[in-house]
Amino acid sequence: MDEPLIGRRVRGPIEAIHETGCLQQMTDLANGDELESEDDLKTLKSLSDDFRRVQEQIGRVVIGQEDVIHELFVTLLGDGHALLVGVPGLAKTLLIRTLAQSLEMSFKRIQFTPDLMPADVTGTDVIFENQTGGEREFRFVPGPVFAHVVLADEVNRTPPKAQASLLEAMQENQVTVGGSVHSLPSPFFVLATQNPIEQEGTYPLPEAQLDRFMLQIMIGYPSETEELEIALTTTSTRPEAVESVIGVDAMLAYQDLVRRLPVSHAVGEYAVRLARATRPDSSSPLDMVKSYVRWGAGPRASQHLILAAKARAALKGQNQVRPEDIASVARSVLRHRVRLNFAADADGIETDRFIDELISSTPVEGNGATRGADQLFRSENTR
Q1: What average pLDDT does the structure give for the chain?
Q2: Is the predicted pLDDT of residue 29 greater than 60, yes or no?
Q3: How many CB atoms lie within 10 A of CB 233?
Q4: Protein fold of 80-233
Q5: What is the DSSP string of 40-103?
Q6: So where are the chain's domains?
Q7: How far apart are alpha carbons 49 and 263 in whole angstroms?
Q8: Topology classification of domain 1-35+261-383
Q9: If you average pLDDT over residues 52-63, what whole number do you get?
């Protein structure tokens, strides 16, 4: 019988792992698969150095938000898309624009409004007249989605028809207009923002589109020290210019490295086990999953758990992926894919708290050979 979730202090995923000594077991699971070539190790070192430089450039304009910057970069390295959620005034748009400036890539911003049409996003065929022969022909005029980095600002303020115009672009890196397929530049990232507190005049993103986002990144209020620095800095000086650090070729090389970062079979099993644990119709769901979950994460969650963990490991300079990397990215990968029911709402169970408990209760090894971090924590305290 699972210990009730209500009334318990639920530790964060990494806190539980470190407290229990489970970290060593996780490290042991990852052993045996790692990058070894000298060129790959040099690229790994170059990635870490470039990321520090990107952080420095963004820090010229944006104060704080180090965790958010890290998660955004994980998204870029994993060749994914991110949804940033936060109340107004937390510099979501400024952060994405500044990140784009630190990358030597094309950048476009789309302001999603109730009257936005799909053609305003993808582009459209326009009639052109030949000045010499007088003949008319259709020519495709690309929309703002044709850029390496696309900011979809307040994406939930436009109707589903316009929201759906991003689906093909996000999944297949192409758009279809007038029966013709047009490829998007590579790499291609959609970084979307939305405000969680305003419901009037908004259109919730459909589940199919939410699932296309690798991460949902929550942006919180700055600390008192950071807010004081923001207030004093922004009212006395103008933002410094941001220098480009990473170009297209370098980003593609880093993405290739992340893809090739080895993942042991045991670590892959842990990622799949964690995603499957969110589903109430799985073979042996936890009591809290049966009680609180309407539906769980699909197979794409397993893919994104592994890709995001690879990117996190690469940013740390690791030449292999460990289970703690999976656990660290689980919140951002799963929070928009798990839907809790009314019972969870009535009991005050929030999604992040639920995911933390799920991580603590999911065994690191299969077949119950190794207990979850939270179980180990309890047994340590009873000795």
Answers
A1: 83
A2: no
A3: 13
A4: Rossmann fold (3.40.50)
A5: HHHHHHHHHHHHHHHHHHHHTT--S-HHHHHHHHHHHHTT--EEEE--TTS-HHHHHHHHHHHE
A6: 1-35+261-383, 80-233
A7: 23
A8: Helicase, Ruva Protein; domain 3 (1.10.8)
A9: 90
